[in-house]
Structure formats: C-alpha cells, structure tokens
Specification:
By secondary structure, the chain is an alpha+beta fold. The protein has six helices and six strands, in the order E-E-H-E-E-H-H-H-E-E-H-H.
Length: about 180
Amino acid sequence: MAGPGDHDVRNDMPPRIEAAATGDGTVTYRIDAGPADLPPVLGRDLLRAWDLAREAARLAIWSVGRIFRFHAADGTTTDLALQDEDACCWAGAVDRALGIQTGYGLSVCLRLLALVDLLARAGWAAALVDLSGSGAELHPALLRAAAQAPLTADARFDEQRLLATCATLPGGASIRT
C-alpha cells in the first residue's frame, strides 16, 4: 500500500528489457528507454534496496558485472557498465529481491546506485545520512526525493534539483550546502 506522497508506480507502463549473459557471466541488458524515462519508485522499496545492498556487502555476496544499454525515444544510446565489486554486489541484491529485468526493479537499482554516487560527491547529501548506531540511516527527505526525482540521461541524480527537492520536503528545511 502506498504511503503519503507515494503513488503505486509498480504498475506504470514499463520499458521492454532484454537480458543476456556472456561467457564470463556478465549480464547485458537492452532497455527500450533512457534512464530519465524510468519510473519513480516507492520510498519503502528504495529503503529496502539500501538495506539489502548493505547486508549483501556485509556478507560478501558478490554478483556478476552488468552492462545496461539504454535506447531512449529520441534515438540516443547510453551505456552504463557496472564492474566495481561493490556496485555489482548492490545490483545483485536488488536483482534477487525485485528483479532488474523489470522497469520498476531497474529503476530501484539505478536509484540506489545514483544515491550512493550522490552521497560520495555531495557533502550536503552525506550530511543526511546518520552513521551512528548499527549502520547508515537515510534521512526521510533524502529517501523520498531519491525515490521520486527523475534520473539524468547518464543514470545519476541532478544534484541541484535533488537538493532543492530535499529542502522543500518535511524534515528537510535544515539542509545546508
């Protein structure tokens, strides 16, 4: 059931996704949409992906490399290769839980990876993660914004747009750059 501010996007019209494994185990996905065309997701699904990815990394459940080839409606093609051990681990965790051969599962996976990328490069975003206690807890404003904000053509978040969104969400008013 969708919570306040969430709509159930899992049934939105998905892009067609074809997957094939190569001889070395790498999986190549051909997606008939661009990253920016993928749907928003439910915050609870992104949080679940975050938790599953952390647990997979903690348990060293590694996964295969993945190549995503996006074919946007405007004719542009974007390739995204996951070869980093951690990124492959996290993508594998999302794949096992949600299936990234679906538009929704792929959107959750790419949003998780974009969020990790954002946390590594944007100090204001890193300040919205609580590292005390038993792990890394995401601020609700950041989680909601990452679940709903569109991805860029290169499967990242527009940092300034996400910052502006976070600052306007409940609990996000104290965000500083």
